Amino acid sequence: MTAAPARRIAIPEWLTAPSLQHLLDLLGPARFVGGAVRDTLLERKVGDLDLATPLTPDAVIQRLEAGGVRVIPTGLAHGTVTAVLDHRSVEITTLRRDVETDGRHAVVAFTDDWAEDAARRDLTMNALYLDRAGDVWDPLGTGIADALAGRVRFVGDAGARIEEDALRILRFYRFQAHYGRMPIDPEIRLACCRRAKLLGQLSGERIRVELLKLLQAEDPLPSLTALVEDAIWRKLGLPEPVALNRLARLLRHDPEPDALRRLASLLKSGVTETVMRLRLSNDEAERLHALVEWTLPEWDAGPIAHHRALYERGRRGYRDLALLAVARGRDPGPLADHIAMAASWPIPSLPIRGRDLVSLGMSPGPAISETLRRVESWWAEGDFTADRDACLAEAGRLLATAT
């Protein structure tokens, strides 16, 4: 452990923001910690900002309010408050050490010892601190080297860290996907396997966050392969078999890190079970069902069939299904042309509405919706070329036939 900064770097641009400088003026002995420090060292885009401070939460709140900064007590039991700045929020947490853990939650005690705070963190590359002068503090002595080498490993004993919070198993595989450039340490992998049963006690919401973030890695396949081989997937309560070969094909043709599309490529069945286990939102659930259950016409089905699919599924939905068709084994040769068509073809709107049918003599009610549906189907079969007058004539024909 070290009582001196391990490295000095050029002050990053994000740290020069006036609102952050004002925040640091108010808090005094505070350092940014975790992801912002790691990603700054690796020259990656910095996302959320977290500050660590030896000040107690009450002292933090008092100082921020006195300085005109809005503060929200988001997690006082764990020493965390949130400072709301002009264009972003910053989580501020008092240095702490674990007193008691149960695999999901921890009872903590506040401390003024930076090394104690570092020792309770999950991964060495996350136990780094950055002060306003550009000094990087590495209390454990290995965090900087691990981050730069792409070596993902736990702080101290892997098994102990996992037993403190079982979600750290998923976090490990997720960080391996995003930051790992070295093979997984066999001892760490064994520690995860031996404690995988602890994952069953985690909420679906926590699992969802980690799994979707893992799937957003540039190449999540190696980590997912290890996760499946190590039975972590099964212990999460997710359906098997897992179609890793489909994901591999999808990644070859689709570099976009779309987590739900990648998840859909892995599923051969069990969409409802997946939705329930991960507690997906209604929008996410609807999209995942569509991704797994819908299919596109064959490539050679002709333009009318594909225009209709694009009309019914929308641009994103059509592109999703085209990519997933290739992931499931369809010839990728025509893929680019169909995706280009989906991006450029002007999706039309049905030229008539319910009020037009009322003007033809129909009474408001369910019959109007049914007639519009039939006109729309006829219009689509003609490749959407019929104009308003032709659609009205078809509606009139249907009304005359009905009577």
CATH superfamily of the domain at 1-149: Beta Polymerase, domain 2
Shape: elongated
Taking strands numbered 1, 2, ... along the chain, how are they ordered across the largest sheet? 1-10-9-2-3-6-5-4
CATH topology of the domain at 1-149: Beta Polymerase, domain 2
Cα separation of the termini: 89 Å
Number of helices: 20
Radius of gyration: 28 Å
Average of per-residue pLDDT values:
93
CATH architecture of the domain at 1-149: 2-Layer Sandwich
Which consecutive residue ranges, at least 5 long each, have pLDDT under 50? none
Largest β sheet strand count, sense and barrel closure: 8 strands, mixed
Element-level helix/strand string: EHEHEHEEEEEHEEHHHHHHHHHHHHHHHH
In the CATH hierarchy, what is the class of the domain at 1-149?
Alpha Beta
Name the helicity range.
Answer: 40-55%
Instruction: Give the DSSP E fraction (strand runs of 2 or more residues).
Output: 5-15%
**What class would the helix/strand composition place it in?**
alpha+beta
Number of strands: 10
